[in-house]
Write a structure and sequence with these properties.
The protein has 3 helices and 17 strands. The protein is α+β, with helices and mostly antiparallel strands.
Length: 245
């Protein structure tokens, strides 16, 4: 009888764990798998992200958002991020961010943090902004071009990259010099209702894989008006963008 109960318990436990393709933009390996409980494209509970026998990430999800301590591994380094969740009072935005970042309350932003609170700098921030378009009609490529022009006015650009995801989102990455310091600038643009939403991380140069990973993990853990912004459980269509057209 005890063996029968044990078998039932093991069956229930194993049944709660699934293996799904994991389409993180930064993992070019097509064999990346997410192992854990998934329902309606939302992860819950303990998860492992693997490629073959290699562990890439492990930690806990709550309804598609990373929470608590996550561990990340690659061939040449490992790091940890302690994630927390921020919810706006009006429920228009739910977003994850590292606990070491300092939340800043400002009416003109949907979300704002100082990413280096121990080294005060107005230039190292993570911000979510809503740009009201009014009656203006523009494409995502045009919005990306305008943003590129704005960045190039404020920084001496050393590198730039841009691509569309599913024709709904535009990711832009820059390395730019300002006042003798080089910065990394990652931006995600998309339309919501009659507004252009901008999500931007501006950080000091260095440890690029870690900062890219953090930025995309924040995107995957962002919900707008209750809907997940973008899911790594769905395969994206990537299209390059020429910013100088």
């Amino acid at each position: 009888m005890k063996e029968k109960y044990l078998l039932i318990i093991l069956t229930i436990f194993i049944g709660c764990t699934e293996s799904n393709d994991y389409h993180h933009v930064l993992y070019s390996d097509e064999n990346v798998i997410a192992q854990g409980s998934i329902s309606k494209y939302l992860e819950n509970g303990e998860f492992k992200i693997t490629s073959g026998q290699k562990l890439l990430q492990k930690g806990k999800f709550i309804n598609g958002q990373k929470i608590g301590l996550w561990q990340y591994y690659s061939d040449d380094h490992a790091f940890e991020v302690d994630w927390q969740i921020y919810d706006r009072d009006d429920q228009s935005l739910s977003i994850i961010f590292p606990t070491i970042w300092e939340l800043i309350e400002r009416e003109e932003t949907l979300f704002l943090t100082d990413v280096t609170p121990d080294d005060k700098s107005d230039n190292r921030i993570f911000v979510v902004l809503e740009h009201d378009l009014g009656d203006e009609s523009t494409s995502l490529e045009e919005a990306a071009g305008v943003y590129y022009f704005s960045v190039s006015e404020n920084y001496k650009l050393l590198e730039k990259t841009a691509f569309l995801i599913d024709s709904r989102f535009c990711f832009l990455a820059f390395e730019g010099e300002k006042d003798g310091e080089v910065y990394l600038i990652y931006t995600f643009l998309f339309f919501e209702s009659n507004a252009l939403i901008e999500i931007t991380l501006t950080h000091s140069y260095g440890n690029i894989p870690f900062k890219e990973m953090m930025f995309f993990d924040i995107l995957y853990g962002t919900f707008i008006n209750g809907e997940r912004l973008v899911s790594p459980l769905k395969e994206p269509q990537i299209t390059s963008v020429n910013l100088e057209d």
